[in-house]
Amino acid sequence: MTSPRPYLLPASWLLLSLLAGGVLLLAGVSQQRSQFQQNSSIAHRLLSQKMVQHEAVLATLALQQRPPPAAELLAGLRPAMPQLLALGLLRDGRWLGSGSTPPPLAATLLRARQRQRIQTQSADAAQYWLVAPSGWSLLLDSRRLLAPGEWPAGLQRVALQLPGGTSTLLNQPMPAWGWPMALDKPLPTSAQPFTFHSRQRYGIAQWPWLSWLATSTVLALLLAWLHSRRLARQQAQREREQARLAAVSRLSTLGEMAAGMAHELNQPLTAILANLRACQRLLDDDDERDTVRQALASSAAQAKRAGDIIARLRALVTQQAPRPLAGIDSAALLASVQDLRQTELAAQGIRLHCLDASLGQRPLADGVALEQIVHNLLQNAVDALAGQPGSIDIRADIDAGRYRLQVRDSGPGIAEPDLPQLFQPFFSTKPGGMGLGLSLCETLAHSLHGRLTAANLPAGGACFTLSLPLADKETP
Ligand code: ADP
């Protein structure tokens, strides 16, 4: 049997796969982010050290009484400071420094002296001057602050916000699409507090596709395994149910068959007896000839039913091929039930009301089996009233595309603890009851691909519901 909702399994797999993908991606992002933070912090620290180095050089130069020529100083410092492009001393408007033309630093020097601290002046977007109050000045190229080999591996783009604009220090290829990461933080020096910008993208190509694929495959296998286990359990349950049905439906011992027959035949035989007694009484009265004729016809019908019941029980026991199912005329069936029992029940103060609202739709069933079920349920309802006046309603209609027949009574209903065992063979609460009626009805209902259920009515009394498939228009 296939699952009633075939999309459920792939949909669950898809949902779980997406969930697993999300979790894996978030884990990847978190790992990449911490790597990025770590790399960016290292670059930030290295650049901060360079800034401190610049200020230390200016402080050392300020202490020189007889400084060597600038060109010599530059040559000495350049191996350790490749970013240093020029240096010199601006004194009394004269430039004592490397390079021939004096740089336009007078205003910046004035500011440095007023504030007594190093000042910056941009040369272009990537280069800037550092001017100390002593007049010593350095021209620095930000792009050479770190050599290519000094950058932490994995960093993609680093820039510094200089007085002249943004200078890109590192520009590694960055994926076009991906999870963006950023760090903006000023360098912690008082004279060169340039903002450090680091950017990176966790590219789609780096996302954990392989782990996701593996997880999805494992999930698919797991779900398939769980599904097959569920199917196997359902199959085992079905087999158990079939075995139980087979056991109940074949009353294998003579004793059980006799008990079943006695139970089933009791009702038509009682009716025949009542009819014959009435005939006996009325035989000599010419005016009652019609009543006698009717009673004899009813007896004949009951005798025929008894014969059918015996044939059916024999078929159950000997496992003859089941009778073919046909479309049953529900209205005619209910009319015949009403006909057979109404007068007798009315004499006991029981109002029997049969209503067919199936609008011409026919249940697919075996007529004798269906009749047997209805008569059994009706007799149980009569028994439940226990000689008290009351009412019994039999109603047939269509519910959710199936034929539904309900037998309701105004009796005391079914005790809650009895409900689960009602359909078990030999369960009875009646003195002298055999407890075979409902079990037989359920077996018959199953053989008709139907269901029989019991419930209590909110206003009191019991309601037995038989549901059967509908016959096609073409079914005979
Ligand atoms: P029996 O009629 O021989 O007891 P059944 O299998 O027909 O066997 O019924 C089993 C039991 O179900 C009954 O003994 C009774 O307790 C309960 N039962 C069946 N129909 C009704 C009903 N309409 N109202 C209350 N109890 C019922």
UniProtKB/TrEMBL annotation:
GO molecular-function terms, A-Z: ATP binding
Q: Which UniProt keywords apply?
A: ATP-binding, Kinase, Membrane, Nucleotide-binding, Phosphoprotein, Transferase, Transmembrane, Transmembrane helix, Two-component regulatory system
Q: Which residues cross the membrane?
A: 207-226
Q: Which InterPro entries does this chain map to?
A: HATPase_C_sf (IPR036890), HATPase_dom (IPR003594), His_kinase_dom (IPR005467), HisK_dim/P_dom (IPR003661), HisK_dim/P_sf (IPR036097), Sig_transdc_His_kin-like_C (IPR004358)
Q: Where is the Histidine kinase domain?
A: 260-472
Give EC number(s), comma-separated.
Answer: 2.7.13.3
* Catalytic activity from the UniProt record: ATP + protein L-histidine = ADP + protein N-phospho-L-histidine
Q: Which domain of life is it from?
A: Bacteria
Q: Give yes or no: UniProt keyword Membrane.
A: yes
Q: What PROSITE patterns does this protein map onto?
A: HIS_KIN
Q: What class of enzyme is it?
A: transferase
Q: Which PANTHER family match?
A: C4-DICARBOXYLATE TRANSPORT SENSOR PROTEIN DCTB, SENSOR HISTIDINE KINASE
Name this polypeptide is given: histidine kinase
Taxonomic lineage from the root = Bacteria, Pseudomonadati, Pseudomonadota, Betaproteobacteria, Neisseriales
